[in-house]
Write a structure and sequence with these properties.
Immunoglobulin-like, six-stranded antiparallel β-sheet, 577 residues, 24% helix, 12 helices, alpha+beta, Aminopeptidase, eight-stranded mixed β-sheet
Length: 577
């Protein structure tokens, strides 16, 4: 059976629809059962409701340490498409291993071979509890469903299916002081009120009830009112408490999901690249998250510029600075962010992708700062989105408003946006194309890995002595320290060469263990320190080292070269005297 046919039979349909927890689990188990030599399925922990946090390890000899890539998706519960893309990348990695001559994203044969030597760790769903709630009920959950108000007595909104129709949407209520008005061109679509509008005017609330309601005061809705923690504010790098960072959690890694990710990845120093999948917007977000590019290592920035070029070419998305184009308030960085942890603490080429370019699909003009798309859309642009939903999304994102008598607020209507398909996530028809573009980018990033090679030679010297010469070089794109900013990390150790003998013995004075330092890679990112076309020159040979040992007698000499980031390569040579 052809590989494509077999993978098609095993697929649970993730390239055309969103999977619930049981379907996602079945997909992972199908791959691990069919391809046990390539796919390992483990759990790195359990969610608050007891669901497994499934991790795929992809590659032959999964216990053999070598450069590796991490992919995670769906840390924000409503952002379901991250799981689809993570699964698509996993399927593509399986394909490139089991197909005799895989044709994948226009990757040449030597890149496929490089990818076969790279490990992949894929966590398709970081927030299984939240995703299940979103899929089953439509309620908004930022990350996790845990609702722990503690001793707080203030009133707040709590999501609830008050009309018992199986879906939690929005409620609107007529109010002369309402901030919203219904769109004339697209009935049911709500727009911010303008001074020229004549009404009727509406207040819009989440479908649910008010806890600690005094019969008069209606609290302002907040997206974390009954699901307090945002996993992407709960990671340890630059964490700040709740009063300074909404969604932070009680303390860094207070949530089992974030704690499991940090515990797992801290044990994987060989990670060199990290993709954190979100929705929506159609953009890659790179470090720095807390400083402008002028304060970023130029070497790091050049590597991200190279990836940004691939992002535009293969996914159609721009790449922007987290600090310069994705802070919600100017000069106020986010705290406890996963990508900050991955870049600053794990030394990875770390980036977010906000999947699904809704704004571009709807013809909305680019904003000076990408984040302004989410909060600074004009009325005409909001109408464009409504028309896109009606004409190209089969009207999935808008439900009709139905009268309902709310037990606390009185006469109201329930309906409005159901943003699960078309707003928060792409329509099902768009998923496959998004998966393909993301995989094309990520696999090229994975091919940047350091690639350590050794060549041994021996020279008889007489009187039972032999000199062993080892040429050790990095043929990969990246240096063995990965990023210039990661050099300072105390665990980012240099290469060590070890000489082991069997039958023969090291001559006195030859050290069995030698530090090589780090080896350069051949890559430099895009435009970094490149000589002008009119004066082309290469760097020296800092990618290579030569070591020698003296051995006495006959036997086997084995040279091992290793570091925590590159794993180990070993080569043996026979000595006859």
């Amino acid at each position: 059976m052809k590989v494509e046919t077999l993978l098609g039979k095993l697929s649970r349909g993730f390239r055309s629809d969103f999977l619930n927890y049981d379907e996602l689990t079945a997909q992972l188990e199908a791959w691990s059962s069919e391809f046990p030599e390539i796919v390992r399925l483990t759990s790195i922990g359990r969610s608050g409701e007891g669901r497994e946090l499934w991790l795929l390890t992809l590659g032959r000899e999964p216990d053999r340490v070598r450069p590796a890539v991490w992919v995670d998706g769906n840390m924000h519960a409503s952002e379901l498409c991250g799981s689809n893309v993570a699964l698509a990348i996993a399927e593509d990695v399986v394909h490139l291993h089991v197909a005799d001559d895989p044709k994948l994203h226009d990757l040449p044969h030597h890149v496929i071979e490089r990818l076969r030597r790279t490990l992949f760790y894929i966590l398709p769903r970081m927030s299984p509890d939240g995703a299940e709630a979103v899929l089953s009920s439509g309620r908004y959950v930022r990350s996790v469903t845990r609702d722990d108000p503690g001793a707080r007595n203030r009133s707040r909104w709590v999501a609830e299916d008050v009309d018992k129709d199986g879906t939690m949407l929005s409620m609107r209520q007529r109010d002369a002081a309402g901030e919203y008005v219904e769109c004339r061109d697209v009935p049911g679509w709500m727009l911010p009120r303008d001074i020229e509008d004549v009404g009727p005017f509406y207040k819009i609330y989440p479908e649910g009830r008010i806890e600690n309601y005094d019969g008069f005061e209606i609290p302002s809705p907040h997206f974390l009112s009954d699901n307090r923690t945002d996993l992407n504010r709960n990671f340890p790098y630059a964490w700040m408490p709740e009063h300074a960072q909404a969604g932070a959690g009680e303390f860094p890694l207070s949530e089992p999901e974030s704690r499991a990710v940090v515990a797992a990845t801290t044990a994987l120093p060989h990670l060199f690249a990290w993709l954190n999948l979100h929705t929506f917007g159609g953009v890659f977000i790179r470090p720095l998250g807390n400083k402008p590019d002028a304060q970023m290592q130029r070497e790091d920035l050049a590597v991200f510029d190279q990836i940004g070029d691939w992002a535009r070419r293969y996914a159609g998305y721009p790449m922007v600075s987290g600090y310069e184009e994705f802070t919600y308030e100017a000069d106020k960085p986010l705290h406890g962010d996963l990508i900050d942890y991955a870049y600053h603490q794990r030394g990875c080429i770390a980036m977010v992708c906000e999947l699904w370019d809704l704004f571009r699909q709807a013809g909305v003009a680019a904003k000076p700062r990408f984040v302004d798309h989410y909060s600074k859309l004009t009325r005409s642009e909001l109408v464009q989105l409504a028309q896109w939903d009606r004409e190209r999304n089969r009207g999935r994102a808008l439900r009709s408003w139905t009268p309902f008598r709310h037990p606390q607020l009185g006469e109201a209507e329930i309906g409005g946006l159901d943003p699960r398909s078309g707003i928060w996530n792409p329509p099902p028809e768009e998923i496959a194309q998004i998966c393909a573009g993301q995989s094309a980018v990520l696999l090229r990033v994975a091919a940047l890995a350091p690639d350590i090679r050794t060549q041994l030679a021996h020279t008889p010297l007489g009187r039972g002595l032999t000199r062993i010469d080892a040429n050790i070089e990095n043929r990969g794109y990246l240096p063995t320290y990965i990023l210039e900013s990661a050099r300072k990390l105390d665990w980012n150790e240099p290469l060590i060469a070890e000489c082991e003998t069997r039958g023969c013995a090291l001559e006195e004075g030859s050290r069995p263990r030698v530090s090589l330092g780090h080896l350069d890679g051949w890559g430099r990112g895009l435009f970094f320190d490149a000589a002008g076309f009119h004066y082309q020159r290469s760097r020296g040979n800092a990618h290579r080292r030569r070591l020698s040992w003296l051995v006495r007698g006959s036997g086997e000499v084995r040279i091992r070269v290793r570091s925590c980031r590159t794993g180990e390569v070993a080569q043996a040579i026979e000595v006859r005297n």
